[in-house]
């Protein structure tokens, strides 16, 4: 037996070729052996099943951000103090119902006598009635200056000026009454020392004094230019002139308080 045949026989014996048909040739036996050898040496593939890794989804709890509550801004209204306007007085002619006349001068002090018997006497501006006399106390033999005016009305205007109307036939107001321009004060007459002259009303313009007196009250500035202006409907105020005269006569009220019969005025 040749060496090749011996090898094949050995391989065949190892592989169990003895049971095969003798018709299988050498080439067939070799192929069979080769196949067996491949079969014997082939390792079945390892089937590795990789289970998919299931990663559970990460549930991130939603962050609840509480809404920011911004308190409403309450803007307090700004209170702007309102400036108090200066008192603006309105003036009217203080005689109604009759045609009246007056001059430009008076005897020994600044005042004026207005003529037009029974004319109505009215407030020349707004103000407060501070004094009245409803009884004629004048006695010719005594001729007391405190009673010469007979029946009278004194008022202090909203402008701070004192207005005096004397020799009235009657008085139409009361002390403490608040009057408006044109409100009735009385009626022109002939009381006091006017009994010895024509029916008229004495008009005096001054500043108020703190005590009773007649000397300043009877008149400190000349009324005609103011009466003229008011008669024309003009708003001419005596305030500046009254203040100027008062400043130049700073002791006038003290002197008046010391005058004869001042307390009876």
TrEMBL record:
Annotated ranges, domain M23ase beta-sheet core: 119-205
Renumbered to this chain, the Pro residues biased-composition regions fall at 54-70
A Pfam family assignment = Peptidase_M23
**What are the start and end residues of every segment in region (Disordered)?**
40-72
User: Gene3D superfamilies attached here?
Assistant: Glucose Permease (Domain IIA) (2.70.70.10)
Question: Which parts form a coiled-coil structure per UniProt?
Answer: none
List all membrane-crossing ranges: none
Q: Where is the composition biased (Low complexity)?
A: 40-53
Protein name per UniProt: Unannotated protein
Organism (species): freshwater metagenome
């Amino acid at each position: 037996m040749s060496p090749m045949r011996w090898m094949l026989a050995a391989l065949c014996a190892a592989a169990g070729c003895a049971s095969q048909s003798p018709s299988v040739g050498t080439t067939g036996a070799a192929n069979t052996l080769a196949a067996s050898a491949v079969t014997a040496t082939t390792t079945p593939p390892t089937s590795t099943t990789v289970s998919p890794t299931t990663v559970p989804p990460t549930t991130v709890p939603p962050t609840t951000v509480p809404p920011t509550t911004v308190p409403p801004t309450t803007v307090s209204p700004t209170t702007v103090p309102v400036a108090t306007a200066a008192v603006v007085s309105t003036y009217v002619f203080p005689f109604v119902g009759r045609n009246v006349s007056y001059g430009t001068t008076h005897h020994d002090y600044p005042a004026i006598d207005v003529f037009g018997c029974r004319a109505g006497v009215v407030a020349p501006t707004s103000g407060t009635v501070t004094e009245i006399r409803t009884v004629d106390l004048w006695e010719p033999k005594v001729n007391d200056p405190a009673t010469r005016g007979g029946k009278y009305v004194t008022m202090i205007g909203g402008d701070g000026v004192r207005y005096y109307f004397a020799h009235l036939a009657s008085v139409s107001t009361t002390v403490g009454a608040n009057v408006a321009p044109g409100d009735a004060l009385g009626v022109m007459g002939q009381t006091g020392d006017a009994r010895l002259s024509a029916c008229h009303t004495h008009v005096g313009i001054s500043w108020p004094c703190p005590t009773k007196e007649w000397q300043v009250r009877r008149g400190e500035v000349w009324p005609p230019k103011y009466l003229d202006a008011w008669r024309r409907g003009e708003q001419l105020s005596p305030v500046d002139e009254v203040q100027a005269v008062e400043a130049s006569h700073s002791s006038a009220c003290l002197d008046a308080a010391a005058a004869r019969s001042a307390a009876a005025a």
